[in-house]
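Thought: the user asked what Cilia- and flagella-associated protein 300 looks like in 3D. I have the sequence; next I should run the structure tool and report back without guessing.
Action: structure_tool
Action Input:
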Amino acid sequence: MDGEFEQTFSFTHLPSKKFSFLEDKNTYTLLMKWSMFGRISAQTFTFDRDFRPYNSEKFALCFFQSPQVVSSLSTKVNTGAPVPLDRPVRVEVEQVPCTRVSMDLFDPIYTCGILRPSGHMVKCFHDVFPDYDELRQMLQDEESQHYYVVGREAREEFLFVLFKHLCLGGELCQYDDVIDPYMNATKRIYKDLISVQKAPDTRKISIISTVFKVRVYDESGRCYPGRRDEEQNFAYLIINPVSHHVTLFSHSYGVGTFEFP
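Observation:
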């Protein structure tokens, strides 16, 4: 068998790598309000071989089978976040486009009727949620007249996906009535997670990170992130192929922590 297919990766946890969104008071206060604090996490690891996107499934399986990764994730058990088992049998990998270096993707939201000039969200009727608004409807309901005000390709971008996760929040989410907190938190977290480089000749900034959405399965079925198929149970591997760093960014849907660190 070709040695390329037998290639394995080793990982080492980098506990010294800190993320400002988990330490910035304004951001973690918002995450607390949205019932995500204590259930959302980011951890970085180094890996020992060159990464190639075509080898992503092998990379991800090695990652979740790594004793360093399993050991590190087990420390999250007290926050309610589930940890993968020692013997995952399969990892489902889906590449998420990540090309945006500015927030202009969201410009149409400000002019289509979802928001008032003040930035407050326009309320709308919903059978289940009495305090529903046009923004959440645009994010979730394909029948919404505003669903594609942000184009189909743009909605697939990691920047938009991250924004959507923050807007939907956790189990006891206290939704904001204005859009600014969601935009500010999205920008800070995205900047924290994504690596960029500047072309020496044009000085143009481009993203070098590769992002994959991952789901881990054992013999009983899906085991990470969470056994329940809930949109807000999510995990992403964010790979910097230059520095050989990979960040696991994840969230376990539930009731977040309401205590300041």
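Thought: the tool returned a structure. Summarizing for the user.
Final Answer: Structure for Cilia- and flagella-associated protein 300 predicted. The helical segments are 25-33, 56-65, 67-74, 134-140, 152-156, 158-168, 180-193. The first helix runs from residue 25 to 33.
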